[in-house]
Amino acid sequence: MFGIYLHWPFCESKCPYCDFNSHVAAEIDVAAWRKAYFSEIGRFASLNPGREVTSIFFGGGTPSLMPPSLIADLIDEIGNHWSLDKDVEITAEANPGSSEAALFEDFKLAGVNRLSIGMQSLNDDALKFLGRRHSAAEGRAAIEAARRVMPRYSLDLIYARPGQSAKDWELELTDALGLAGDHISAYQLTIEPGTDFHRQRIPAADEDIGADLFDVTQRMLEDAGLPAYEISNHARPGAECRHNLVYWQGYDYVGLGPGAHGRLTNDGITRRIQEIRDPARWMNAVETKGTGTQKSERLDAGERRDELLLMGLRLTDGVENDRFKSVSGETLEDALDPDAVKLLSDGGFLTFDGQRLAATPEGLRRLNAVLSRLLT
Questions:
Q1: What would the pLDDT profile of 77-134 be if each residue is shown by its tens digit?
Q2: What is the rounded distance in angstroms from the CA atom of residue 20 to the CA atom of residue 1?
Q3: For 145, 151, 224, 334, which has the most beta carbons within 10 A of its beta carbon?
Q4: Measured between alpha carbons, how far is 252 from 265 in angstroms, rounded to an integer?
């Protein structure tokens, strides 16, 4: 597996909970951005030739504000430098505003075959609180448009909002399931430093309430045929987001655009790559220096091992021993402290059968604490 992530950093407005690298711009020089992305695609391809791309993900920002012709050009350019898997998954994040929904057919013609729709809520008051520009009615219309046009689509939802009860969430999730395709991402609201919510001192959900809502999410989505395959992601069997599995299973991927991250392995050495975050500085660097990369750091064996565990244990299936050994060069038994594994297994937080290390449902609820003990 080999993925390409392309970051489009522009939005119509900044949501108060968002800590992603997104910016509001009055004007965008599309031709200049096309040229810069093409330059970076060519540069990364020259350093990593011969790869077969299994997934392309347009993230942001709001990629559904990109001209469909630009999306088509970028997909073509990626295909000019690498081979594309015959079943390549090409996802674009989309807001459910009416203007974006009207372009879904054009996105499909451009080559997109999966949409990730940032619905966030089906409640107008909640949407207003979250700073979303669309109404619940517009969201429903966008989902119906995606259902008619796209082979696959996913809904993003945010729960554990202030004052939200388990009953409230059950009703909203029931409503969402009536609109769902083969994938739902359900995220607990977190209050991140630097966001408007943090500056406004909006309180995060009480830990017990968050845990109750998490349990409701797991139960209802599993009963509806959308079991969790990752802490916050649920899909019908076979409909998991292939691009996200690239991250969680420790495969290589290229990150293109301002602030994008990548992991690339050459001659057995994996590097952590970070692009310049500020859009204007990234563009200027690509134009004047021929590279938008800010950092390219070699991961040592311990860092690579820890990443595989940090990401892999988010998955319901956990970390498979053969995969872990092929990447890290050692087995799980050799890499882990047996006393920590035993302690966490005896406590009901981990399972390990010699072939696969996985967090139990109880372990997933307390994954940060589990990882802290396991990686000590």
A1: 999 999 999 999 999 999 887 667 788 999 999 999 999 999 999 999 999 999 998 9
A2: 25
A3: 145
A4: 7
Q: For the chain, what percentages of helix, strand and coil (3-state, to nearest 5) are there?
A: 45, 25, 30
Any idea what the Cα angle at residue 314 is, between residues 313 and 315, rounded to 5°? Answer: 85
Biggest distance spanned by C-alpha atoms of the chain: 59
Beta bridge partners of 24: 11
Residue with tokens 């900044």: 14
CA 293 to chain centre: 21
DSSP 76: H
Asked if 34 and 70 count as a contact pair (C-beta separation under 8 A), the reply is yes
Give φ, ψ of 208 to 5 degrees.
Answer: -70, -40
- Cis peptide leading into residue 329 (ω within 30°): no
Which of 174, 168, 165, 176 lies closest to 121, judged by CA? 176
Pairing assessment for the beta strands 350-352 and 356-359 based on DSSP bridges: antiparallel
Structure tokens given for 127: 């949407």
Q: Which two tokens stand for residue 114?
A: 């999966």
Query: Percent of the chain at pLDDT above 90?
Result: 77
Task: Please give the sequence-ordered ranges of beta strands (E in DSSP) within 139-181, or none if there are none.
Answer: 152-159
How far apart are alpha carbons 64 and 99 in whole angstroms? 9
At what angle are helices 166-177 and 207-223 packed, to 10 degrees? 30
| E strands, 95-209, in order | 114-120, 152-159, 183-188
- Is residue 127 a contact partner of residue 176, using CB atoms and an 8 Å limit? no
What's the residue count for the chain? 376
Give CA–CA dist 350/356, Å, rounded. 10
